Amino acid sequence: MKMLINPPQLNKPWATDKALFLLRLVTGAIFLVHGLPKLQNVAMTTAFFTKIGIPMAGFFAPFVGVVEVVGGIALILGLLTRFWAAGLVIDMVVAILAAKGLASFKGYEFELLLAVSSLALFLQGGGRWAVDAMLLKKMK
Questions:
Q1: Minimal CA–CA distance to 35: which of 2, 63, 1?
Q2: pLDDT tens string for the chain (140 positions)?
Q3: Is residue 43 within 8 Å of 65, Cβ to Cβ?
Q4: How many Å apart are CA 99 and CA 82, to the nearest integer?
Q5: Whole-structure pTM value
Q6: Which 3 state secondary structure label does DSSP give 58?
Q7: How many CB atoms lie within 10 A of CB 105?
């Protein structure tokens, strides 16, 4: 029974590195795909931000698009993982509070999942298979 609950082959560092790689890859890809339309149609994003009461919508619409696109690419690569993950956590918290509200969990579960995924990457870092790890190795 213990083997089913806690398989020894999954308690190895490479399993953690695989998990972090997959988390980075999927979370980064989702941010990239959701950020591109914000940059491709800044006017529509600005109008939406204005409608939901985001101050300085003309500034924040492209800013959020850049954070999501560049942050998504950075997560995929594992480049400055903690920095970009922190920014994406903030992005999703603002999305939940401003765009979705807390009235119904059903309305913001996607954003919450992205926030928690980004928070996990912020806390854990990119893992061994990240550009960050290669850079740290070269700096030693």
A1: 63
A2: 455 566 666 567 778 889 999 999 999 999 999 999 999 999 999 999 999 889 999 999 999 999 999 999 999 999 999 999 999 999 999 999 887 676 666 678 899 999 999 999 999 999 999 999 988 888 76
A3: no
A4: 25
A5: 0.87
A6: helix
A7: 9
